[in-house]
Automatic annotation (TrEMBL):
Protein name stated in the entry: KIB1-4 beta-propeller domain-containing protein
Pfam families cross-referenced by the UniProt entry: Beta-prop_KIB1-4
InterPro entries: F-box_BR-signaling (IPR050942), KIB1-4_b-propeller (IPR005174)
Organism per entry: Brassica carinata (Ethiopian mustard)
Domain KIB1-4 beta-propeller: start-end pairs: 4-244
Length: 275
């Protein structure tokens, strides 16, 4: 295997037979004359797992930060973590986790700024699992994903929409709110957005057509993110999507394409970078 496995915080991750590499080439703030490279060893494959097919990657912050943690989610039970800053000291230690719950085998991993933990949405969106990277009792056989937030979906919508080519993505808004985005990437692209609410300790996910002055970025290989639309001159209440072939913009209110961005130059978006 040799190719792009994901993008996060303005960095692109690739993996080959021996290494995971991080590049900042496509980051608008990167140096053209001195692009940055971080080369990491490849995680070991746990028994009864595979590390050839990658679901996605996520990072808690820029890999240049001392406290940054990189997560690689493989298709199946294995989830692997490391601290890229260890590369400066010459040795990167991977923590490899085998997930017991099969509902997470095809899930994508993301990082929650609100909870300071990595999270994954179970298949069908019925609950969210969290893993605390600072846990002291972790082991290779630890089930990292705990049933947490129960979500109640619009059953009529779910039953009358095909499951083919559907991705279920978890993304946090700019003020800490959490959304679930269902993305059907077939011939007719369709999105459904749910907002997770909490009341007296009970969490529900309600179908919504209005997320206010917010836009959501989703892509086939990038970590999803949200932005305050007016702050960046973007369209509010919209989803910007990108894949290997095409990118565009869809109104959440009526699920209508309101802008085609043309052929996608990459299967991920680069979020604005702080100076």
């Amino acid at each position: 295997m040799n190719g792009t496995i994901g993008g996060s915080h303005g960095w692109v991750a690739t993996m080959d037979e021996y290494f995971v590499r991080l590049y900042d080439d496509l980051n608008p703030g990167a140096s053209d004359s001195d692009p940055k490279r971080i080369v990491l060893g490849r995680p070991k494959t746990l028994p009864h797992c595979q590390t050839e097919l990658v679901t996605n990657v996520a990072m808690s912050s820029s890999p240049e930060d001392e406290d940054c943690i990189l997560a690689v989610k493989f298709l199946g039970p294995q989830l692997s973590f490391c601290r890229p800053a260890q590369q400066i000291r010459g040795y990167v230690e991977w923590v490899n986790i085998r997930i017991d719950d099969p509902c997470f085998f095809s899930s994508r991993v993301s990082y929650s700024e609100r909870y300071k933990m990595f999270s994954m949405l179970a298949s069908g969106g019925t609950y969210i699992g969290y893993w605390d990277p600072e846990k002291k009792d972790r082991s290779q056989n630890l089930s990292v994903c705990r049933s947490g937030l129960y979500t109640q979906f619009n059953q009529f919508e779910m039953q009358h929409t095909s499951n083919d080519c559907r991705s279920e993505l978890l993304v946090e808004g700019p003020t800490g709110e959490t959304f679930i985005v269902n993305w059907w990437a077939g011939i007719f692209r369709r999105f459904m957005v749910y907002k997770i609410d909490e009341y007296m300790g009970i969490h529900t996910a309600s179908f919504t057509k209005d997320i206010g002055d917010v836009c959501i970025f989703v892509s086939s290989k990038g970590q999803p993110f949200c932005l305050k639309a007016s702050l960046y001159g973007l369209a509010s209440n919209c989803i910007y999507y990108g894949s290997d072939r095409v990118s565009g913009k869809v109104s959440i209110r009526d699920n209508v394409i309101v802008g085609r961005l043309g052929r996608s130059s990459a299967p991920y978006f680069i979020p604005p970078q702080s100076s």
